[in-house]
Amino acid sequence: MKSKGFIPYKGQSYSAEETQKRAKSYYDYMNARRSLRFFSNKPVKKSVIHDLIMTASSAPSGAHKQPWTFCAIQNTVMKSKIRIAAEKEEYENYHGRMSEDWLEDLSAFGTDWNKEFIDIAPWIIIMLRKSYDLIDGKKSKNYYVQESAGIAAGFLISAIHNAGLVTLTHTPSPMNFLSNLLDRPSNEKPFLLLPVGYPTEDAVVPDLERKKEEEVIIWFD
Ligand code: IYR
Asked: Which member of 11, 84, 104, 208 has the lowest number of beta carbons within 10 Å of its beta carbon?
């Protein structure tokens, strides 16, 4: 990135009371987010998907390299090709490639090799991480690519939730088939597949509890 110098920061600050209110209400809001497997085929506008992805792309990244590409797929032929290839890999995963312990850990979620949601959800976003950039055929290094892509995925998931839509972080494995289907260059590696859409009216989610404060925070105050 060519530096254009520094400009004043234009972020918003609040009173202590308002800060607390906003922190708590955002926690409540995000704590209501769930990963969903039941998608309606109700359309979602391309301009909505644009804004969700641009939110993701506003995430911080190593040396501001923004080492990611998002493929936004509405095309039914492409979705169907992706579903068939993903299910082929997942079938192998659920029938021998995953350990007994892993299958046991997943049993509460009702997952299996069937990935019908890829056909049904109006949009599939495939996020690819760029291990390096290719600028005029020359390799240019990216930094903390895994961390940067993970943060951008978090931004994307929260933007989807904020829009009243739902998603699921699906990681078909191995994912190389996506590079071929989407014809992506060798510096881009598939990272996550996220169906995006509205939930069905009868959608259900596992009755989970989240870890309590004592299990996730160690205070040094
Ligand atoms: N990738 C498989 C299996 C799977 C693995 C984990 I870890 C999950 O939290 C859920 C599923 C699949 O998508 O079905």
From this structure: 11
**Which element (helix H / strand E) includes 7?**
none
Cβ of 90 less than 6 Å from ligand 1: yes
Condensed to tens digits (0 to 9), the pLDDT of residues 5-49 reads 999 999 999 999 999 999 999 999 999 999 999 999 999 999 999
pLDDT tens digit sequence for 152-178:
999 999 999 999 999 999 998 899 999
CA count, 13 A, side-chain hemisphere, 37: 12
Q: Are 195 and 117 in contact (CB under 8 A)?
A: yes
Lookup result for tokens 């906003």: 22
Nearest CA to ligand 1 atom 11: 111
Residue range 38-199 forms a domain whose CATH class is alpha beta
